[in-house]
């Protein structure tokens, strides 16, 4: 049994959110540079160049990359031999979120009573927390600041199995097509396939946590990603929707077994401001 | 060799009809002058005010509204990160504000058919700012003041002064639309993929 202090969890989370909001990670920077090289559309190329410039300005001045510093999503992989001391784990996650958004000059974008008064909670809590209990005595924390320009374009389809692979591809391509300029392309397309409705959407979100450009380890899924990416980029939407060859930087698929009666497919889009960070305590 | 030959035009705000007539979808502009900033909640309040038969807290004649809610400013800075938000959420409100004289909107993403029709009717334009370039836009903003709805925090109605603020004309007064034109130019329809 290993003890982890709740306050160190909060501090870690605060640091992860702030770092993610100011600095684009290398994989995303590289993907944007490649896109700028390949893009043939002059207005789209200018957008991509500005996004790279923005990333440098943001990192230098610790100014958030985007004013939508998101809703906080925290993934926990808690080793079953860990004992959290000095407070409770979820309390520490909320405290870490509170500290990050206050100390980091991040925007507080969360409202309570969403269908009526929509009152700002003023500290960007609550964070959305997903926990997995795993073997071992470590705690892995992933903090994702999820912007809602792209989140609002999420879709799920509980398709009949007869739709098959082609149906999956068509649905994902249709989602990106209908989203058009709204999710701030170039996007990362997170796709969940299988499970139940809620598991499927969670898979789509988890797909966004993979390093941009790393293919799925399973060959069949990797091939599907390549095919969807080509179809998405053939849409011609381009950076910021001004027309171009690069609409998505990557398509990431996550797969889970499902029921004999269904073929669930979920799409969760991520703008180019990919902001997730990991730490292991 | 791909060259980026477009040169941005310098435009001083507010937008006169003479200037509006020269703007075409795809034009790149650098705006200098004053504009208002508001998003969902400020728009909702403005419309409720008008519905109650009361005057708006600011005169929108000839003005531009930037759909944006900034991050808090660090000490010594005018503003934090300050990029555009998705414009479609203002679609329900924009036509009414155009009847109050609003001539320009800055945001990102697509507008409704109703908004596009209203822009033609009222000679107004929709300008696209780069979503996710909030740190760059912060550098173009010289002065910020909250002019109404302070209680809305990041959603308060603000007046800002900008210099060389980069935008692209998305919808002009003639019905031009860079999203439709750009996509049509680069869309690939392969043999086996019937376009969805």
Largest interface: A-B, 58 and 53 residues
**CATH superfamily descriptor of chain B:** Fe-S hydro-lyase, tartrate dehydratase beta-type, catalytic domain
Tell me the quaternary state. heterodimer
Mean pLDDT across all residues of chain B, rounded? Answer: 93
- How many domains in all of chain A? 2
Give a description of the structure.
The complex is a heterodimer of chains A (281) and B (196). Helices cover 40% and strands 26% of the residues of chain A. Chain A is of the alpha/beta class and 281 residues long. In chain A, strands 6-2-7-12 form a 4-stranded mixed β-sheet. In chain A, strand 4 (111-112) and strand 5 (119-120) form a beta hairpin. In chain A, helix 6 (164-179) runs parallel beside helix 8. The model of chain A has no long low-confidence stretch (mean pLDDT 97). With 196 residues, chain B is an alpha/beta fold. Chain B has a single domain (9-186), classed as Fe-S hydro-lyase, tartrate dehydratase beta-type, catalytic domain (fumarase), CATH 3.20.130. Chain B contains 6 helices and 7 strands, in the order E-H-E-H-E-H-E-H-E-H-E-E-H. Chains A and B meet through helix 3 and helix 6 of A and helix 5 and helix 6 of B.
């Amino acid at each position: 049994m290993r003890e982890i202090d709740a306050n160190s969890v909060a501090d870690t989370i605060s640091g992860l959110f702030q770092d993610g909001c100011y600095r684009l990670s290398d994989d995303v920077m590289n993907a944007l540079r490649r896109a700028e090289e390949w893009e043939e559309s002059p207005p789209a190329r200018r957008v991509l160049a500005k996004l790279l410039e923005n990333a440098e300005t943001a990192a230098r001045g610790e100014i958030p990359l985007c004013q939508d510093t998101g809703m906080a999503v925290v993934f926990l992989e808690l080793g079953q031999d860990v004992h959290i001391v000095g407070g409770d784990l979820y309390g520490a996650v909320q405290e870490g979120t509170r500290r990050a958004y206050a100390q980091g000059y991040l925007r507080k974008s969360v409202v309570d009573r969403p269908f009526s008064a929509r009152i700002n909670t003023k500290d960007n809590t609550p964070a959305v927390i997903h926990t997995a209990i795993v073997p071992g005595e470590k705690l892995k924390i992933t903090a994702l600041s999820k912007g809602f320009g792209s989140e609002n374009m999420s879709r799920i389809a509980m398709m009949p199995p007869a739709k098959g692979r082609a149906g999956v591809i068509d649905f994902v391509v249709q989602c990106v097509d209908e989203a058009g300029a709204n999710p701030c392309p170039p996007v990362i397309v997170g796709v969940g396939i299988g499970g139940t409705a809620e598991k499927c959407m969670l898979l789509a979100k988890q797909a966004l946590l993979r390093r941009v450009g790393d293919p799925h380890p399973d060959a069949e899924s990797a091939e599907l990603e390549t095919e969807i990416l080509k179809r998405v980029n053939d849409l011609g939407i381009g950076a910021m929707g001004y027309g171009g060859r690069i609409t998505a930087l990557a398509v990431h698929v996550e797969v889970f077994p499902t029921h004999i009666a269904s073929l669930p497919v979920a799409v969760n889009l991520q703008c180019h401001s990919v902001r997730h960070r990991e730490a292991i305590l | 060799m791909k060259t980026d030959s477009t040169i941005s035009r310098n435009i001083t705000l507010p937008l006169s009809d003479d200037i509006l007539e020269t703007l075409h979808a795809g034009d790149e502009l650098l705006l200098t002058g004053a504009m208002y900033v508001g998003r969902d909640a400020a728009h909702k309040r403005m419309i409720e005010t008008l519905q109650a038969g009361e005057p708006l807290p600011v005169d929108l004649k000839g003005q531009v509204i930037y759909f944006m809610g900034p991050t808090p400013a660090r000490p010594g800075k005018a503003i934090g990160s300050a990029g555009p938000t998705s414009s479609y959420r203002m679609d329900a409100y924009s036509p009414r504000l155009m009847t109050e004289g609003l001539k320009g909107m800055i945001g990102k993403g697509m507008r409704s058919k109703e908004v596009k029709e209203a822009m033609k009717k009222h000679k107004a334009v929709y300008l696209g700012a780069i979503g996710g370039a909030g740190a760059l836009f912060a550098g173009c903003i010289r002065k910020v003041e909250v002019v109404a709805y302070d209680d809305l925090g990041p959603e308060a109605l603000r007046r800002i002064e900008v210099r060389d603020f980069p935008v692209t004309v998305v919808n002009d007064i003639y019905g031009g639309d860079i999203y439709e034109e750009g996509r049509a130019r680069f869309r690939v329809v392969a043999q086996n993929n019937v376009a969805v």
